[in-house]
């Protein structure tokens, strides 16, 4: 075995340019494959962890997927709101254990602002029924208190007590902002890897307060109510965007869903988050699966390139193989020599791909987190990725047997004198 | 062990599927320490005979013994092993593995044969020293040892190949026109060192060439056409 490895190394080193390029191309394809797989796993994970322990998500009537998108993922906007009176009726339904209303529509420098009650910090659960936790500060008490997510605090460098200004709508450009009513950071949440990290939480009353002098999505000309006077107004919310509901018993969930879906006063929709997430994921997973299939094909192309290169080199190596046979290498050794060479290139390629992915993810993680909300922070390979890597290497070894077999045939046919 | 290194009787070889070509040798013996010159025109079956002696091909009929070992009764991997253990091979040209150094090329048989390795280490502390010494005896000093074989002249390459065939003290060296790529002066120079080494080490040498002028260097000279009843045409 030792002379075999030595020869295989020396021979590969002799053709390092060709084989090196081959290894790089396999490396790139492996990087693509593993990258897609990592993204896929991470995306699915943050996806399925985004909500837990909530039995129903309620919004104005729309498609279940759209409701999930805006209520849970803060993607897109709600087309309609829910009346406060409807919320009160539903929340007092005997089978409801708890309910958290949320109100969306404003933003703070690109981060979603969500109006809610302090119940949000008590009942909203994610991942494995985990509650939101504060890394510092506490829930909002005053009207102009705000609780910011981990990403908001980190990216904008906020500390407790800092003053922040909200914008109307989703735009980060403060054309129409709420500059007259600044908020104070009262709490900073621990990182969750969810949309919560990129949200600013204020009370429902605060939402009302900053829109007192607004109408139809724009400030009323000539009317300006200073912050110190807002407490004199009735700040009871009139509309909210969505409700998270927990039931006393899960058994009643379909009954409750039907009750809300048939709600008389206004058209509402209640969805089971688990079901809706699955539905949403099945839409996404077509893309995800085809991406994986494409990258698998790219790896296939890389490996066939390897076989082609080694096979093409075989013609000019007939003499070398004959010499090796004359000094005692049997056809089996010649076979192994070529197979090992192919395997070496595949292993080198896999290592290149792996380290390339590491370097890339170091640079890509912040970008992905900000723009896609996909967290690659823990970047250990998933079991699935290891499996893929092993499959690539095993396939690489199998296809290396092709030039190995060809060399075996040649060395049997040529014997000690190469036929050229 | 008897004095006979090669013993061929009533040997018949035919390429499978090629009716016209037959090589038949009624009787051929070579004794230990002999240096035999086998002369034959190209296409006269030289390579076939060498492949038979080297154990790459097997005759359909007859007796083929090398070093008292019946090659016809061995499997192909046994013959591979036998070849590297006992026979040094030397070809016309391109004898060397291009990506190995001069020294590594010489050591190569010892990488595949425990016997050759053991024999090389009998007279030297390491394979490297043994190789360097052989190279020195063939006129290539130690500055060549680390060089790539591709940087050598054809004459030098043939010496490296000769050193390799001698490495680890094989019993028999089969040389197939090793001088045909050399000019006349180099030819006799090369022959002299090769024969000198074989003489000193007591190695049997079968030297095949079409060039009758080289025959006088050897203590026995045979014409292949006398040896064989060889038929290259339709029977």
Topology:
The complex is a heterodimer of chains A (420) and B (235).
Chain A: H1 2-14, H2 16-48, E1 56-60, H3 64-71, E2 82-83, H4 84-91, E3 96-108, E4 111-116, H5 119-123, E5 125-126, E6 130-131, E7 134-137, E8 145-148, H6 150-156, E9 163-164, E10 167-168, E11 183-189, E12 199-203, H7 204-210, E13 214-215, E14 218-219, E15 239-240, E16 242-247, H8 253-261, E17 268-271, H9 273-315, H10 318-326, H11 331-371, H12 383-414
Parallel strand pairs in A: 4-12, 8-11
Antiparallel strand pairs in A: 1-16, 1-17, 2-15, 3-4, 3-10, 3-16, 5-6, 7-11, 8-12, 9-11, 13-14
Helix pairs in contact in A: 1-11, 2-9, 2-11, 2-12, 9-11, 9-12, 10-12, 11-12
Chain B: E1 4-14, E2 22-31, E3 35-39, H1 46-53, E4 61-66, E5 69-70, H2 76-86, E6 87-90, H3 102-112, H4 114-122, H5 127-137, H6 154-166, E7 172-176, H7 184-201, E8 204-209, E9 220-223, H8 224-227, E10 229-231
Parallel strand pairs in B: 3-8, 3-9, 6-7, 7-8
Antiparallel strand pairs in B: 1-2, 1-4, 2-10, 4-5
Helix pairs in contact in B: 3-4, 3-5, 3-6, 6-7
**Pairing-aware structural class of the strands and helices of chain B?**
alpha/beta
- Element order of chain B: H for helix, E for strand: EEEHEEHEHHHHEHEEHE
Number of helices of chain A: 12
Percent range for β-strand residues of chain A: 15-25%
How many individual helices of chain B? Answer: 8
Name the average pLDDT of chain B.
84
Distance between the termini of chain A: 29 Å
Describe the structure.
The complex is a heterodimer of chains A (420) and B (235). By secondary structure, chain A is of the alpha+beta class. Chain A folds into 2 domains: 2-47 and 284-414, no CATH class; 51-279, no CATH class. Chain A contains 12 helices and 17 strands. In chain A, a hairpin with a 2-residue loop joins strand 13 and strand 14 (218-219). Chain B is globular. Chain B has helices at residues 46-53, 76-86, 102-112, 114-122, 127-137, 154-166, 184-201, 224-227; strands at residues 4-14, 22-31, 35-39, 61-66, 69-70, 87-90, 172-176, 204-209, 220-223, 229-231. In chain B, strand 4 and strand 5 (69-70) form a beta hairpin. With 235 residues, chain B is α/β, with parallel strands linked by helices. Chain B has 8 helices and 10 strands. The longest helix of chain B has 18 residues, at 184-201. At the A-B interface, helix 1, helix 10 and helix 11 of A face helix 1, helix 2 and helix 3 of B.
């Amino acid at each position: 075995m030792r002379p075999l490895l030595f020869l295989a190394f020396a021979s590969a080193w002799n053709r390092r340019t060709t084989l090196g390029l081959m290894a790089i191309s396999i490396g790139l394809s492996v990087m693509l494959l593993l990258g897609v797989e990592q993204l896929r796993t991470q995306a699915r994970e943050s996806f399925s962890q985004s909500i837990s322990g909530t039995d129903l998500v309620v919004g104005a009537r729309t498609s279940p997927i759209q409701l999930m998108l805006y209520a849970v993922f803060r993607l897109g906007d709600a087309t309609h709101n829910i009346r406060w009176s409807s919320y009160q009726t539903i929340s007092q339904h005997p089978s409801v254990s708890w309910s958290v209303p949320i109100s969306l529509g404003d933003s703070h420098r690109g981060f979603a602002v969500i109006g809610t009650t302090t119940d949000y910090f008590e009942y909203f659960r994610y991942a494995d029924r985990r509650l939101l936790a504060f890394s510092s500060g506490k829930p909002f008490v005053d009207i102009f208190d705000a609780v910011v997510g981990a990403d908001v605090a980190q990216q904008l460098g906020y500390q407790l007590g800092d003053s922040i200004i909200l914008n109307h709508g989703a735009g980060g450009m403060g054309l129409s902002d709420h500059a007259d009513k600044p908020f104070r950071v009262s709490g900073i949440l621990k990182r969750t890897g969810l949309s919560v990290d990129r949200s600013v939480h204020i009370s429902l009353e605060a939402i009302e307060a900053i829109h007192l002098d607004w109408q139809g999505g724009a400030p009323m000309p000539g009317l300006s109510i200073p912050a110190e006077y807002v407490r004199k107004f009735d700040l009871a919310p009139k509309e909210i965007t969505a409700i998270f509901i927990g039931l006393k018993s899960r058994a009643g969930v379909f009954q409750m869903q039907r009750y809300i879906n048939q709600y008389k006063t206004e058209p509402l929709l209640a969805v089971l988050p688990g079901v809706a997430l699955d539905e949403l994921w099945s839409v996404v997973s077509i893309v995800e699966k085809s991406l994986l299939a494409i990258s698998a094909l790219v790896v296939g192309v890389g490996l066939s390139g390897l076989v082609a290169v080694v096979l093409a080199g075989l013609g000019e190596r007939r003499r070398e193989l004959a010499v090796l046979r004359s000094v005692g290498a049997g056809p089996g050794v010649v076979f192994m020599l070529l197979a090992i060479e192919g395997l070496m290139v595949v292993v080198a390629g896999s290592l290149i791909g792996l380290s390339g992915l590491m370097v890339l993810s170091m640079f890509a993680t912040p970008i992905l987190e900000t723009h896609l909300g996909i967290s690659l922070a823990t970047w250990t390979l998933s079991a699935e990725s290891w499996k893929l890597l092993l499959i690539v290497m095993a396939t690489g070894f199998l296809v290396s047997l092709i030039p190995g077999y060809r060399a075996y045939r040649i060395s049997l046919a040529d014997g000690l004198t190469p036929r050229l | 062990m008897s004095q006979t290194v090669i013993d061929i009787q009533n040997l018949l070889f035919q390429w499978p599927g090629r009716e016209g070509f037959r090589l038949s040798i009624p009787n051929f013996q070579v004794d230990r320490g002999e240096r035999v010159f086998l002369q034959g025109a190209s296409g006269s079956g030289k390579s076939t005979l060498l492949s038979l002696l080297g154990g790459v091909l097997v005759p359909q009929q007859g007796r083929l013994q090398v070093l008292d070992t019946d090659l016809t009764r061995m499997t192909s991997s046994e013959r591979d092993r036998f070849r590297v253990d006992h026979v040094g091979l030397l070809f016309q040209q391109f004898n060397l593995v291009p990506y190995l150094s001069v020294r590594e090329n010489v050591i190569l048989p010892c990488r595949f044969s425990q016997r050759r390795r053991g024999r090389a280490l009998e007279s030297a502390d390491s394979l490297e020293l043994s190789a360097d010494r052989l190279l020195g005896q063939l006129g290539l000093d130690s500055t060549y040892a680390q060089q790539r074989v591709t940087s050598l002249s054809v004459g030098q390459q043939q010496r490296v190949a000769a050193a390799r065939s001698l490495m680890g003290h094989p019993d028999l060296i089969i040389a197939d026109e090793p001088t045909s790529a050399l000019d006349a002066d180099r030819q006799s120079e090369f022959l002299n060192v090769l024969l000198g080494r074989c003489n000193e080490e007591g190695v049997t040498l079968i030297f095949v060439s079409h060039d009758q002028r080289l025959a006088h260097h050897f203590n026995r000279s045979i014409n292949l056409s006398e040896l064989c009843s060889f038929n290259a045409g339709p029977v």
